[in-house]
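=== RUN LOG ===
request id: a7f3
mode: sequence -> structure
chains: 1
length: 155
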Amino acid sequence: QCSTGEGDCDGWCTDVYNDPYNCGSCGYECGYVEDCCDGYCTDVYSDPYNCGTCGSSCGYSEDCCDAYCTDLYTDPYNCGFCGTSCGYSEDCCDGWCTDVYSDPYNCGYCGSSCGYYEDCCDGYCTDVYYDDYNCGYCGNVCSWDEYCDNGWCTY
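=== RESULT ===
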């Protein structure tokens, strides 16, 4: 006779609550990325309540991506959704891939806003009204005998 929580599967006492080959009942086999959690086949690669292994829960703002808990609001490899990777000059800001080299509301890093007369040039807040290397807009360089005045290269 088998103990509580076990099933008699062809003469063998089996833990049907945790056995992926006899999950919930004898002979019920879980799939490739599944594990048997409390008698139910569970996808441990995407279930935030059983992430990576049974009973391993993700935090409040996290989701389970490829068996790892991750914050979809800040993870540049899982931005907004599992598997959404941000590009070279991008970071994950509030779940959106954002170019931190040019976004004046996320300049250099998420949440860093530029001032009223500034633009984000190569990840730095720059006063485009008086910067000789970013005059009027990013990358507009005044010639050697000019200076930037009110966004215009002037002699």
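=== NOTES ===
The mean pLDDT is 95.
The two ends are 98 Å apart (CA to CA).
=== END ===
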